[in-house]
Amino acid sequence: MRMISSLGNRLSKKSILLVGAAGNLGPEWARALLGEGALVYAVGLETRDNPELARLAREFPERLLCGDLDVTQDLTARTIENALSQPEGALRLDGVVLNAGIDSPPGANRSEVSSFDIREWERIFRVNVFGAVNVLSAVVDVMANPSAAVAVGSIYGLISPRVDLYDHFFEGAGAFKHPAYGASKAALLSVVRQLGTHLAPRGIRVNALTLGGVEGGQDTAFVEKFVNQVPQNRMVPLDEISGAMIFLLSDDSLSMNSQNLVIDGGYSAW
């Protein structure tokens, strides 16, 4: 377990709702937010049972509250308060991290990119796009002026996955990354732009943080092929992504709105 070596204060006295806290990168975001002094409301599927969040809760017992929440269900601020075992009217937010999502693995033995079941498309969009809108709609009236929402995106919302990165999957049979994943992340960027412009008069800025090539236990063959396409010739270390998230949530970015901050080592710039 990596301990937080020094505490900052860029999010001191700020309350942040972290959605998808037990999912991909969720505990990393929680660790970073706590390290900058925030009160963190961590929600999502199986959040209460996540061992990394449990360790952080022991380290920060008064600043990390966890609750189980399904972003595809009807939501209100009261629903979220109930999930967190908080009294009515307790939720007042300075920031929201929209991290809930389905990062669908490449499909096995697909001969065509068009061969994916439409029901899988619906399931991915229901979480990755509709879930984000669902959460923001539920909490917009309890967000401060100023406040910030950050949607976690993917480089596959900007560019297509390279087929050769996955051609060694399934013992050389190859695979396709589910096209609904990239499409959902592209749609999320449109949501960010429109909600950001419309909520700006209320002091709420909405931005995206798009990540690509972040270290996450990928197999050696994938890593070797991926880094050969990255100008920096490396994956993005996990501990290098948090600074961008803190920036977007903090008062350092008060004039940044409806934008997309890309952290990918230059992969998408070719």
Total beta-strand segments: 9
Beta content comes to: 15-25%
Q: Quote the distance from N terminus to C terminus.
A: 36 Å
Main sheet strand line-up = 3-2-1-4-6-8-9
> Helical proportion?
25-40%
Contiguous low-pLDDT stretches (5 residues minimum) are: 1-6
| C-alpha Rg (nearest Å) | 18 Å
SSE order, as H and E?
EHEHEHEEHEHEHEHHE
The secondary-structure class comes to: alpha/beta
Overall average pLDDT? 93
Number of helices: 8
How is the main sheet built? 7 strands, parallel
**What is the overall silhouette?**
globular
Please explain how this structure is put together:
The longest helix has 22 residues, at 118-139. The two termini are 36 Å apart. The protein is globular and about 55 Å long. The chain has eight helices and nine strands. The protein has a seven-stranded parallel beta sheet with strand order 3-2-1-4-6-8-9, sandwiched between helices. The protein has a two-stranded antiparallel ribbon with strand order 5-7. Helix 1 crosses helix 8 and helix 4 packs parallel to helix 6. It is 33% helix and 19% strand. The protein is of the alpha/beta class. Helix 1 (26-35) links the parallel strand 1 and strand 2 (39-44).
